[in-house]
Write a structure and sequence with these properties.
The chain has 269 residues and is α/β, with parallel strands linked by helices. The protein has a single domain (2-260), classed as Purple Acid Phosphatase, chain A, domain 2 (4-Layer Sandwich). The chain has helices at 2-19, 61-69, 86-94, 157-165, and strands at 25-32, 44-48, 72-75, 102-104, 111-112, 115-116, 131-137, 140-147, 171-175, 191-194, 203-204, 208-209, 223-225, 232-235, 253-260. The chain has a six-stranded mixed beta sheet with strand order 7-8-9-10-14-13, with helices on one face. It starts with a helix and ends in a 9-residue tail after the last strand.
Length: 269
């Protein structure tokens, strides 16, 4: 008789794990950047990560509401899945728009035989791998830097850091892997937006994530990390799944980041 009870429990857990990939959530963060120009107070970034071919979010009413409010959209790698149509996702990505731009950095799944392969999406100038974009507002400046996947890509961090150090203004780094937090000189950056980990994709109560997919301290796997001397790190649990089409206690996630100056009186342009 107890075999049957165990079977029901296992079936229930498996059913939930197959259902959770469709339980999208929005996580909001406010990040204070002391040297941020007043014109950027309230600047809003919508982050999408690890889509892996899933297109459901693009018709989700709450997502469309946040997209309408976003000043910038950051797509932090891993676009496609080998089992889902690429063209459908590419059409959705092409329709993303924000006043200050839509920027993409590559993830490990965006490479084939050592080369970036994100067709049929024509990312164009929105590809931020090893580049720095300057966003200007009435004399204020915000830098958005991007680094390609730290393992499968060809990151040029030394050159990127040289550019950042030679350009005034606070900087945000887009990196598929949260390990960018460990790069030498990363303190030049105020905020890192990353993905890759899927939040572990499967978490066991009492044990946490079975797979961390990063080398950061304190068993960090997703969410926000604030440490003195380092930029704020925000790692998305991502939207899709890889290998196994399941999630457990790691709901797919859209990240919304609102920047602030920390000063009492600011001007929003």
């Amino acid at each position: 008789m107890w075999y049957g009870a165990i079977g029901l429990v296992v079936a229930g857990l498996l059913g939930y794990a197959l259902w959770e990939p469709y339980r999208l959530k929005v996580t909001q963060h406010r990040v204070v950047i002391p040297d941020l120009a007043d014109e950027f107070d309230g600047f809003t970034i919508l982050q999408l990560s690890d889509i892996h071919g899933r297109v459901g979010v693009f018709s989700w009413r709450v997502f469309l509401g946040w997209l309408a409010q976003a000043d910038l959209v950051a797509v932090t790698g891993d676009l496609y899945s080998p089992t889902l149509p690429r063209a459908r996702l590419a059409r959705q990505l092409s329709q993303l728009h924000a006043p200050s731009g839509v920027f993409f950095v590559s993830g490990n799944h965006d490479y084939r035989r050592g080369a970036l392969h994100i067709e049929p999406w024509d990312v164009g100038e929105e590809l931020l791998d090893n580049r720095v974009a300057r966003i200007e507002r009435k004399g204020g400046r915000l830098l958005i830097a991007g680094i390609p996947d730290l393992v499968k890509g060809s990151p040029q961090w030394a050159d990127l850091l040289h550019t950042l150090r030679g350009t005034p203004g606070p900087a945000i780094l887009l990196s598929h892997r949260p390990d960018a937090w460990l790069l030498e000189g990363i303190e030049r950056v105020s905020l890192i937006l990353s993905g890759h980990t899927h939040g572990g994709q499967v978490r066991i109560p009492g044990l946490g994530a079975l797979f961390r997919h990063n080398h950061l301290p304190s068993r960090y796997v997703a969410g926000r990390l604030d440490r003195p001397g380092h930029p704020v790190l925000i790692t998305s649990q991502g939207l899709g799944t890889s290998e196994m089409p399941v999630r457990f206690l790691t709901r797919p996630e859209v990240i919304v980041v609102r920047l602030g100056t920390g000063r009492a009186a600011t001007v929003r342009s």
